[in-house]
Amino acid sequence: MAATVKVMRRPEPETTSYLRASLSGMAITFKHMIRPDKVTRQYPEEQPDLSPRWRGTHVMEVHENGRPKCVACGLCPTVCPANCIRLVGGEDDQGNRYPLVYEIDEFRCIFCGMCQEVCPVEAIHVGVHFENAEYTRDRFVYDLDRLMEQDHPSTLLWDPSDPRSE
Amino acid sequence: MNDLSPTAFLVTSMMKITAVFTGVILVVAYMTLAERRVSAFIQDRWGPNRVGPFGLLQPIADGIKNILKEETLPATAHRTLFILAPALAIIPALITFAVIPFAAPLGTPWGTVEMIVADLPIGILYILALSSLGVYGLFLAGWSSNNKYAFLGGLRSSSQMISYEVALGLSIVPVLMLAGNVTLTDIVWQQQQLGLWYLFPLSLAFILFVVSAFAETNRLPFDLPEAESELVTGYHTEYSSMKFSMFFIAEYSHILTASALMATLFLGGWSVPFWSGDHMYWHEGMLISGFNAAGDPVAADPAWWKTLFTLLSFAVKTAFFVLVFIWVRWTLPRFRYDQVMHLGWKVMLPVSLAYLMIVAATVLVMDQVGVEGFAFGAILTVVSGIATVAFVYLLDRGRVIGGASASARRSQDEVRVRVSHGTSLSTSQGG
């Protein structure tokens, strides 16, 4: 990548008019003052455009019968670099494994998305979402029910049109 | 100067004091909002627009916040002066507005009420005296804080105020010479009689006054006493809560007074341009609107709608200058300290003295020759125009303001070195 250097030419002392420079400065500020297009985004009304690859709060995918897709294989707590996932697996009478406890501490989470990457059944996802404010700290440990209730879209960890992230 | 009974005078004066005080405080509050909105607009932002419609309740929210905030008293501060300083800053700033006429006299069943709190015979001298008292607040704040930044801010404010006070006073003198009086009602009346705003016949005085007024009110490009980048916030570094707020109210009411003064001295005050229906003046115990051909006074007929209309005219003129104050603040960078002193003593002072002599000589010659009326104004406009052009030309050659030109007086070679360095950098990292 070529480095571009912007060379600012110093005003030449014999030809520079301070008055004209000041007045043209005033004109510039006035033009900006009356310009209707502002850069401010009026946030709660105007939402930011998040990338489809944005990694935010987690979502647990749910089967049609209302049970979580997670099979309690234990890969996500193993791979998690922040060690923020707590998983206790169980088994029902047909021999299907399912999570008894599945908690994600969103404070510890670094939103790397490796849990989603490693999941063999595409159950846990990071989501396209960022408004996580709560009134108490303990509300930031998301349990299984809460993860299943999240209704924001889950992240495309890779963009199908740009699979190598170029 | 009025036909009111003592009781009516007392009652109307009380009402005017209340109205003007409330008005000034309200306008000052909304000037803070205007400053924030205008600065935001200049920087392509929206500014505070959440509290109330268009953010109109923002000053009230700010006020509540400042009153409820914790007040700190630095351990090493001089207690008495520390508490006294904000009051010393705010009182002169608020009471200077008393002598500025803000509308045409209003006729009431009890007599004619002048729309000015106190028509003092010393008018402008009162304003000069009180506005320079304001520096005590700033300097004592800086001194009593026992903080080196605050101290430097206070020091700067006093030296800057003293320097520009001289030029400010001298730039007003031509106005007083033309008006022949120091009361502001007289200045407005004389401008109405001349049929020309003093802005034109005294253009250089106007420029000098505006620049000095910027320095007097500590606004950018002369906000050396505050100078965030060098002195934290200067003289009010140690202040918090409402005391801090009081310095701000003082600064903004200074701006308001300065804007009202510019409007009154140079833009005809409350008089509406191109309309003689609002000409009103107390002449030998009678409210006159002018003199007829025989030289006899003609009685004026005040009306409530004329008062309202002139008040609007005054408000528009003042608001224009307030906007200019804000606009300039968000355009020009701060001067260096020696540049401020240089400009004050070596440019403003001699120029205002020289201009004073020019105006005095011109007026004297025209009085001797007997030029009157519009021709008088026209000739003075031409003379002042030449003086203004000469002043701007001299100031603009980069030799009068030494400090600023020194940094720009780089040799061409150095520019070329920079260019070649820039290109080599881009080629070496190109691959």
List the helices and strands and how they pair.
The complex is a heterodimer of chains A (166) and B (431).
Chain A (H helix, E strand, L loop, with lengths): L17 H17 L21 E5 L14 H5 L5 E7 L5 E9 L8 H5 L5 E4 L13 E2 L1 H6 L17
Antiparallel strand pairs in A: 1-4, 2-3, 3-5
Chain B lengths: L5 H37 L15 H11 L10 H17 L10 E3 L2 E3 L9 H22 L3 H32 L4 H11 L8 H14 L11 H4 L9 H26 L14 E3 L2 E6 L5 E3 L4 H26 L7 H33 L3 H24 L5 H7 L3 H17 L3
Antiparallel strand pairs in B: 1-2, 3-4, 4-5
Helix pairs in contact in B: 1-9, 1-10, 2-9, 3-4, 3-9, 4-5, 5-6, 5-7, 5-11, 7-9, 7-11, 9-10, 11-12
Structure description:
The complex is a heterodimer of chains A (166) and B (431). With 166 residues, chain A is α+β, with helices and mostly antiparallel strands. Chain A is built from four helices and five strands, in the order αβαββαββα. In chain A, the strands form two sheets. A three-stranded antiparallel β-sheet of chain A has the order 2-3-5. Chain A has a two-stranded antiparallel ribbon with strand order 1-4. In chain B, α1 runs parallel beside α10 and α4 packs antiparallel against α5. In chain B, the strands form two sheets. A three-stranded antiparallel β-sheet of chain B has the order 3-4-5, covered by helices on one side. A two-stranded antiparallel sheet of chain B has the order 1-2. In chain B, β1 and β2 form a beta hairpin. Chains A and B meet through α1 of A and α1, α12, α13 and α14 of B.
